């Protein structure tokens, strides 16, 4: 039984939602073919309110899931039927910016881009930059260990977190890490970042900031094929250059972008474009960009564009940042895959990905972080068509297996969630998975917090999949 009246007493009646029309909004995240309707949504405004809400739900034995902006792409914020979503968007304050120590203390409903905006007057910025950064929240970034185009140089979210405030599954408030750069003991901050909301609900974070670079150089090179663009990436890195970003978009992505509000002036006749960016000291950056121009000139590049100023640079990035949104022109729904392969295997794996798309008769495009081999095959489809949806899911499984067989892994930044949960055996044996379960259970023994995510049930624990409130979704093919 949902304790609705008690929840209303904690957060106010206006901040407890439970009507069918209100619940419809929360049936899924950015992965639209997996859906489950919660029993209620609660919107607390402080860590103490989150603590009180969690305590009530734990006492009532009601499963619950934390959610931010709903931009996730692995069904990580999906709630069990009848469970409760704890929506954190009201925890949206930047609490402090410490310019001297290059730190920002923020609540976890703050958007990613807002952190850099708050740090700007101090000459600082927050490095992780997912494509959804104007909408996605820090809480979601922490849960999924989000990356973005510039993680090739700066690393993913985990490298930029100093301390956390979290609400444990029984309602207790805990704090991990400190203002010190190094602290003895277990790295529980590192454990929670990337745990996908299965261990605790993070409500505040102390984030590390970076100095705004003295100079930035951005180049866009057009090639006749994705393979040639990948070869350019290989050559850039082989020459010892250190870009902050190396991004590739294929022909179908270019066509979608250029037909949308995100049009960036990419050459429509290109088989692929490569976006290269350097930042740092002015002389070093200029020299690196010159060397890329020289390299591309020797590769029969279709065209090469170098940003003249900041406005031009932002235009070149506009298409990349808006690529997923532009896919809405191709079909009503988008399935964004997320796997990582060794950089040297990019051309081979991409050829397999394209062939899988053809085999299943799907509209498949590619936009990806080429520098670290993080692939994002995108399938544009209509989830109202059951047969097409089946083919999308089956093709996704084939793509993941191809990436793992090439020496890669299941996810670079979108997480496992429900989408890839039952593919974890592609990478881990049962002993590995059992150790992960032990760590999760140390925090979340009753599995009320974000149940059924990340780790598949063992054969001896299949009954856990049918416990009250658990998600009952079709098995992947």
Keywords:
single chain; alpha+beta; Uridine Diphospho-n-acetylenolpyruvylglucosamine Reductase, domain 2; Uridine Diphospho-n-acetylenolpyruvylglucosamine Reductase, domain 3; Alpha-Beta Plaits; 5 domains; 15 helices; 20 strands; 32% helix; globular; disordered C terminus
Note the topology:
Layout: H1 4-11, E1 16-17, H2 20-24, E2 40-42, H3 47-59, E3 64-67, E4 84-87, E5 94-98, E6 103-107, H4 112-119, E7 124-125, H5 138-144, H6 151-154, E8 161-167, E9 173-177, H7 188-192, E10 201-208, E11 210-211, E12 215-223, H8 226-238, E13 245-250, H9 251-258, E14 272-280, H10 282-297, E15 303-306, H11 310-321, H12 323-326, E16 333-336, E17 339-340, H13 346-359, E18 363-369, E19 374-375, E20 377-381, H14 386-405, H15 430-443
Parallel strand pairs: 2-4, 3-4
Antiparallel strand pairs: 1-2, 5-6, 6-10, 7-11, 8-9, 8-10, 12-14, 12-15, 13-14, 13-18, 16-20, 17-19, 18-20
Helix pairs in contact: 1-3, 13-14
Plain-language structure description:
- This protein is of the alpha+beta class and 477 residues long.
- The chain folds into five domains: 4-87, 2-Layer Sandwich (Uridine Diphospho-n-acetylenolpyruvylglucosamine Reductase, domain 2), CATH 3.30.43; 94-211, Uridine Diphospho-n-acetylenolpyruvylglucosamine Reductase, domain 3; 215-325, Alpha-Beta Plaits (2-Layer Sandwich); 331-405, 2-Layer Sandwich (Alpha-Beta Plaits); 425-466, no CATH class.
- Helices cover 32% and strands 20% of the residues.
- The protein is built from 15 helices and 20 strands.
- The protein has helices at residues 4-11, 20-24, 47-59, 112-119, 138-144, 151-154, 188-192, 226-238, 251-258, 282-297, 310-321, 323-326, 346-359, 386-405, 430-443; strands at 16-17, 40-42, 64-67, 84-87, 94-98, 103-107, 124-125, 161-167, 173-177, 201-208, 210-211, 215-223, 245-250, 272-280, 303-306, 333-336, 339-340, 363-369, 374-375, 377-381.
- A seven-stranded antiparallel beta sheet has the order 15-12-14-13-18-20-16, sandwiched between helices.
- A hairpin with a 5-residue loop joins strand 8 (161-167) and strand 9.
- The radius of gyration is 22 Å and the shape is globular.
- It starts with a helix and ends in a 34-residue tail after the last helix.
- Mean pLDDT is 94; it is low at 460-469 and 473-477.
């Amino acid at each position: 039984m949902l304790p609705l009246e008690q929840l209303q007493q904690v957060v106010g009646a206006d901040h407890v939602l439970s009507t069918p029309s209100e619940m419809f909004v929360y049936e899924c995240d950015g992965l639209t073919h997996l859906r489950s309707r919660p029993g209620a949504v609660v919107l607390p405004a402080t860590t103490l309110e989150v603590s009180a809400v969690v305590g009530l739900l734990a006492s009532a034995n009601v499963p619950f899931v934390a959610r931010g902006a709903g931009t996730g792409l692995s069904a990580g914020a999906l709630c069990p039927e009848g469970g409760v979503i704890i929506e954190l968007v009201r925890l949206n304050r930047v609490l402090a910016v410490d310019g001297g120590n290059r730190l920002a203390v923020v609540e976890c409903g703050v958007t990613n881009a807002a952190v850099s905006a708050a740090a700007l007057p101090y000459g600082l910025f927050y490095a992780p930059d997912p494509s959804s950064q104007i909408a996605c929240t820090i809480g979601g970034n922490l849960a999924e260990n989000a990356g973005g185009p510039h993680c090739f140089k700066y690393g993913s979210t985990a490298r930029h977190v100093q301390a956390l405030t979290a609400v444990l599954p029984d309602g207790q408030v805990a704090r991990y890490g400190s203002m010190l750069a190094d602290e003895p003991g277990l790295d529980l901050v590192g454990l929670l970042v990337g745990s996908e909301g299965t261990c605790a609900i993070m409500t505040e974070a102390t984030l590390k900031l970076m100095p705004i670079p003295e100079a930035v150089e951005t180049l866009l090179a057009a090639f006749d094929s994705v393979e040639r663009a990948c070869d350019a990436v290989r050559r850039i890195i082989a020459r010892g250059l250190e870009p902050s970003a190396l991004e590739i978009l294929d022909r179908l992505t270019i066509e979608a972008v250029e037909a949308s509000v995100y049009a960036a002036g990419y050459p429509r006749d290109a088989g692929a474009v490569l976006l290269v960016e350097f930042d740092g000291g002015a002389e070093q950056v200029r020299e690196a960009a010159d060397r890329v121009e020289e390299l591309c000139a020797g590769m029969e590049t279709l065209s090469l564009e170098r940003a003249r100023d900041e406005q031009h640079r932002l235009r070149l990035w506009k298409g990349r940042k808006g690529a997923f949104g532009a896919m809405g022109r191709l079909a009503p729904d988008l399935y964004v895959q997320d796997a990582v392969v060794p950089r040297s295997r990019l051309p081979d794996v991409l050829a397999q990905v394209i062939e899988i798309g053809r085999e299943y008769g799907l509209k498949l495009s590619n936009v990806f972080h080429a520098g670290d081999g993080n692939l994002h095959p995108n399938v544009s489809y209509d989830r109202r068509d059951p047969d097409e949806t089946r083919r999308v899911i089956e093709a996704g499984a084939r793509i993941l297996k191809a990436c793992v067989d090439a020496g890669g892994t299941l996810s670079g930044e979108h997480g496992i969630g429900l989408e890839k949960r039952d593919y974890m055996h592609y990478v881990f044996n049962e002993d590995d998975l059992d150790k992960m379960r032990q760590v999760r259970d140390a925090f979340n023994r009753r599995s009320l917090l974000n149940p059924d995510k990340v780790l598949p049930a063992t054969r001896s624990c299949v009954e856990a999949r049918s416990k009250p409130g658990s998600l009952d979704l079709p098995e992947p093919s």
